[in-house]
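BACKBONE STRUCTURE TOKENS:
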Amino acid sequence: MGTHRKKQHYRRIVVAAVATGAVAIPSTALACNQPSAPGERPSYGAGNQQGNHGWNRQGHPGWNRQGNPVSPVGPVSPESPAEPAAPSQPSAPEASAPAEPSAPEASAPAEPSAPEASAPAEPSASNDTSTSSGATARVVELVNAERSKVGCSALTVNEKLTKAAQAHSEDMAAHQNMSHTGSDGSAPGDRITRAGYSWQTYGENVAYGYATPEQVMAGWMSSAGHKANILNCSFKEIGVGLAQPGNYWTQEFGAAR
């Protein structure tokens, strides 16, 4: 991987690496740093957990990795309801010699059984949201653990950065495309501004295909560009997003004005 240099004026550098992870979906990541001087473009970097193969290019606006679409699982056809059994025909009573009619015994009517009320299934969306919230909170913990090793202050979770990160993860998942450019052409700075965050500086990491917070953090920390964002002491706040299918992750870093 190329090194991510920090200078007073950033040079626009794109670092890209591609490798196939241990799972069927490739695990890949991209990093973006906001320029220090007005009018300069952000620098973009890409890497992965096994980022041994990479290349650098000067003067390229960015590198997009087209994700492999995950074939949606088709809905399972419900079992056909069993054909109702035909009612049995009553047999004609046999005629018997006249006798003293006996009063028919009246059997007590069976108490109608109340249908058992089954608890409604929780919507899958709420389960996904709960899982994502736990995973993104774990990422923040891991980020702050890494920052403490180098003397950086812990990042606090910012609602607006979280909103921007989650929206971008959902956008990437919906289009099966990992990129710092949104499907509407937006850049990271556009998205956090749109979410209402007034920034002094910002950075963004994205990734897909990593199943756990520990795996995606290992991937980011193995890439110079992503690691630089995570360990940038000028950042004070963070927002993390995760969306399915494909495990699309986004980290938004910032320092507010």
About this structure: The domain at 13-66+126-256 is CATH 3.40.33.10 (Pathogenesis-related Protein p14a). Confidence is low (pLDDT under 50) at residues 1-26, 37-41, 43-110.
